[in-house]
Write a structure and sequence with these properties.
Layout: H1 6-26, H2 41-60, H3 76-110, H4 118-139
Helix pairs in contact: 1-2, 3-4
Amino acid sequence: MRIRSRQDFWSGIMFLAIGVFFAVVAAGYQMGTAARMGPGYFPFWLGVVLALLGVVVALTALSPEAEENHVDRFDWRILAVIIGAVILYGLLLRPLGVYLATFLLVVISSVASHDFSWKVAVANGIFLVVFSYLAFVKGLGLIFPLWPSFLGMN
């Protein structure tokens, strides 16, 4: 068998490895049942599904119908921008609150895209702030600082 799509093949292998890792680690926790899930139930099955997805993706890369391509050189700048944005988010979450920290995370990590656009980055940031509010504050009722601490609006 010949690997026709290296990108799909290695993506599938990565999904497979991560899925197996999480399933094995989660198997060490109490499983429970579908009706009364234990702490290991959801991560175990999520890992199994991810591993199966990885197998499917890797096998499709071997089919003769797969589009032949190569993997481009790894861009370390993109990795640095995304990891830096996540670290910055963690550092700014308390002083700036969820809204501003989330907005900055999205805009800064968007700079890593080859198709970066300020309009799209700002729109995505606003959407994620609204979604975070609806999902975590309204939907789940979680309590955490939403606005900068120096404004006293929490």
